[in-house]
Design a protein that fits this description.
Layout lengths: L1 H40 L6 E6 L11 H16 L3 E6 L11 E4 L8 H10 L4 E2 L11 E3 L2 E3 L6 E9 L8 E6 L2 H21 L6 E8 L1 H4 L4 E6 L1 H5 L4
Length: about 240
């Protein structure tokens, strides 16, 4: 009888220890994944992130509904990483300081003047062609490649990370050819950041081209990594 009880006790203890070790391993795995994700976006759990939201083209102070949804998705991302958010309009000036900044929207039509400043200062290898009746209207050029704007069919967004000299936290610039491209890029990075992280040489500074295709059918959901253009984007042209 004592032998049977001892075996039962040993079995229970073994099960508890095994379950505890599995729980600790799973918790450690989740923690490591969280830290890798936070590192890719340059945020520190417990701190506050700054989201700078652009306006509609030529309509200062009026945000596109899709860009508002992009902000919601960024806020959800920040929440997953244990961060709070502060949202500002593109009229915001000054340093992001000790807050990781997510700057959403391209500069054309004065939609996001701050993103234009970021591009000019930190991404001199990127050219955004103006609106025109030419085939390269709104196209992005970087590294000898051109990414054309096929509205409602195939569109692109640049996603860049860099840390301004006067700041202790980085800027994540999401610069899409449209609000659909902005939303597609954020949606892609939130669910597939590991793929993007594996494609770049360093997660401290990068510039990626995200392609959003099949928009008539899938809206922003069919987004994928097109190319890492970090070297060309940050290089100053002679």
């Amino acid at each position: 009888m004592l032998s049977v009880l001892a075996n039962i006790v040993i079995g229970l203890v073994t099960s508890l220890l095994g379950g505890g070790l599995v729980w600790l391993w799973e918790r450690g795995k989740r923690t490591r994944r969280l830290h890798r994700k936070a590192g890719f976006f340059g945020v520190v759990p417990g701190e506050t992130c700054l989201i700078v939201l652009g306006s509609k083209h030529h309509e200062p102070g009026s945000a596109h509904p899709r860009d508002v949804r992009s902000v919601v998705e960024l806020a959800m991302l920040a929440g997953e990483l244990g961060c709070q958010v502060t949202v500002m309009s593109s009229d915001f000036r000054g340093s992001n300081g000790d807050r990781t900044e997510f700057c959403v929207g391209g500069p054309l039509g004065d939609a996001n003047v701050r993103s234009g400043g970021h591009l000019a200062t930190y991404l001199p290898g990127v050219t955004i062609h103006p609106y025109s009746d030419r085939p390269d209207s709104v196209a992005y050029s970087v590294g000898g490649e051109q990414y054309l704007f096929d509205r409602g069919n195939e569109e692109y967004a640049l996603v860049a990370k860099f840390t301004p000299a006067e700041s202790s936290r980085p800027v994540i610039l999401v610069c899409g050819q449209s609000s659909v491209a902005n939303q597609g890029a954020i949606h892609f990075l939130r669910r597939a950041y590991a793929e993007a992280a594996a494609a770049v040489e360093s997660t401290e500074r990068y510039c990626l081209v995200i392609k959003v295709s099949g928009i008539h059918t899938y809206e922003f959901h069919r987004a994928e990594l097109e190319r890492d253009v970090s070297a060309a984007a940050f290089a100053r042209r002679g």
